[in-house]
Structures are given as C-alpha cells and as structure tokens.
Write a structure and sequence with these properties.
heterodimer, A: about 220 residues, mainly alpha, 2 domains, B: about 110 residues, alpha+beta, 3 strands, elongated
Chain lengths: ~220, ~110
C-alpha cells in the first residue's frame, strides 16, 4: 500500500490494509498487528517532537515502517507457522484422545460379549494407523517449529505438509465416524458406538477446519515473494 | 547500511538490545538505531514478526506493562535467549576476525609492526 491520500488516519488505514492482507490465527494476527500499530503511533509522536501527531507525521511513520507489500510477507510467514502449529497441536491431541474413546467403546462391547463386526474392526484399525502416523508427524512438526528451530532451519514446505497431514487425519476420522455410526446400528451396545461416532465427527470438523486454514496460509506464503 | 544487509543478523541484534532489560517493540527499533549511530537501516515494520519468531523459539518472553493509560507488550530475554546471544556473539567475533584477516592488507616484509 502506498501512503493514503484521503483524510483517513494513515496509521489506522495502514493497519486495516495489513490486517486484510494477512491470513492466519485471529489471536496471533491481532497481536502482531496491534503491536505494529503501537509502534506506528510511537513513531508518529517521535516525528512530531512530542506533540500530538499530525497527518504528515503519521504518513511518514507508515512510510518508515514499510508498505503492506513490503512487510506483509514476514508477517504472513509467522502466521502460517502459527496456523501450522495450531493444526499440528489439534491432530496431536485429538487423535490419541479418539483412540482412547474407540478403545473404551470396543472394550465395553467386548465385556458384554458383543464385538463390532470384524470388517469394521479391521477398517477402523487401518484408519487408526493412518491417524496415528498423522499424530506422530504433527508432533514432529510442533518440535521443528518450536525450540528445535533454534538450531535447525524450518523447511518452507513444512506448513503445507502439516496442512495435508491434518487433512489426511480429518478424512481418516470422517470415514471412522461413518463406519462407527453404521456399526452402531449392528451392535447391541449401539449407543456407545453412536456416541463414539458423534464425538469423532465433532473432532473431524475441528481438524478439517484447521487444516483448510493451514492450506490457505501455506498457499499465500508460497505464492509470496 | 541497507536493510537487506542487516537481515541475517536481525535476531542477534534484537537479542542484544534486550539484554539490558525489557523493551516494547518501538523501543527495540530505536535502541538498534541508536546503538548503531543510525548506520543500520531497518525496515521497521518487520521487527514485529521477528520478535514474534524469537518468542516462539523460546528466546524471548513478552509481558504486558502499563505506561500511563497505555498497555504495552514488552519483550525480555529468557535464559535460552541469553545463551543464544552469547553464541551469536562468539560466532560473530570469529566471522569478523576471519574476514578482517583477509580484507586487511597483509604487513609487508621488513615493515615495522
């Protein structure tokens, strides 16, 4: 963005333009943009020699901080990593929790002498394997973008990898939910299987939304300069 | 000095100006410029994502501080940040010594030292 020529406050206009150009977790974005806004206000005050900053000082501060085109890529890189970490955290926490739910449902059914059909168990086991691999990858991604990044560079493609890992986990969870819901009709203890299916659908929605946002962020970052 | 020349050393510069105590974002910018006597040109807006990254890596932590009616986010070094700064300094000294040894004219034979 070049410095606005309207009567609008140049700092507020700049902050709004930057915010509109960025994609990522709302809290992190708001925090970084508000920090920048505070800095712009300080800079405008400095340029006004302590007086109430005027329009010219605000425009000069915006110029010195850099246009949206100049600074947005570095903001977006951080937001993309933040979104990748959100997605990775969701996969890493939710998938083991669902494993526990499924295990409890199966154990409960077993104790009453009514197992889920073999085919269903086999399918859920395979999907569980996929989801567990996704959880492992998610944990590795969290480490690679956290403290480990002090020593190792973060690969540019990592957020995209996390996005597709999340998508894979979400698809595996969706098929599992469908399978469990259908199986619940066959099982004697159908309410338990049905509950497990509903919980899985709820978490599928959560992971799928985060993975979609992560894909969008990664696309914007990779398309940038 | 152009902002692009500073880019690879930005993390070290930010850690260094925060060594003496917590500062908010704009104070970090002015501290870098004052300590370099205005020689280092920063694209000031890019400081904020850089601070965010250092916090994500656990090298900084941020705290809210009140300044009159305004609440400001201030950044301070963690123990890991202090260790990282010490490493950055050591690497920088080795680098400048090596480059200096190449760039500086070698003493001529017989020239008094």
């Amino acid at each position: 963005m070049s410095a606005p020529t309207t009567d609008a406050d140049p700092i507020e206009a700049h902050v709004a333009d930057l915010s509109a150009a960025l994609h990522g977790p709302v809290r992190v974005k708001s925090r970084m943009v508000m920090d920048l806004r505070d800095g712009l206000i300080d800079a405008a005050r400095d340029l006004s020699c302590g007086r109430e900053p005027d329009h010219h000082a605000a425009r000069q501060a915006v110029y010195e901080f850099g246009t949206v085109a100049e600074i947005a890529p570095s903001f977006q890189r951080e937001l993309t990593i933040a979104q990748a970490r959100h997605t990775a955290r969701a996969v890493m926490l939710i998938v083991p929790f669902l494993f526990l739910c499924w295990h409890l449902a199966e154990t409960w059914d077993g104790s009453t002498g009514h197992q889920l059909p073999d085919l269903v168990q086999l399918l859920v086991a395979h999907l569980g394997g996929i989801a567990a691999s996704a959880a492992f990858l998610a944990a590795a991604a969290l480490a690679a973008t956290g403290a480990l990044a002090r020593w190792l560079p973060t690969p540019h493609q990592l957020p995209l990898l996390v996005a597709w890992t999340g998508t894979t986990a979400a698809v595996a969870l969706a098929i599992s939910a469908l399978t469990l819901t259908l199986a619940s009709v066959l099982a004697t203890n159908w309410p338990l299987s049905a509950v497990a299916g509903v919980v899985t659908i709820a978490f599928h929605t959560r992971i799928a939304a985060s993975a979609r946002a992560c894909r969008e962020c990664a696309r914007v970052t990779l398309a940038g300069p | 000095m152009k902002a692009s020349a500073v880019r690879g050393h930005l993390d070290g510069l930010l850690l260094s100006v925060l060594e003496s105590g917590p500062l908010h974002g704009y104070a970090v910018i002015t501290a870098v410029q004052e300590r370099s006597n205005g020689v280092l040109e920063l694209r000031k807006g890019t400081i904020y994502p850089a601070l965010n990254k250092l916090e994500r890596l656990g090298l900084l932590r941020s705290v809210w501080e009140s300044e009159g009616e305004r609440r400001r986010r201030c950044y301070e070094l963690t123990d890991a940040g202090r260790r990282s700064l010490a490493t950055e300094r050591s690497v920088w000294r080795e680098f400048t010594t090596a480059i200096g040894a190449v760039l500086e004219p070698a003493p001529q034979p017989g020239q008094a030292t």
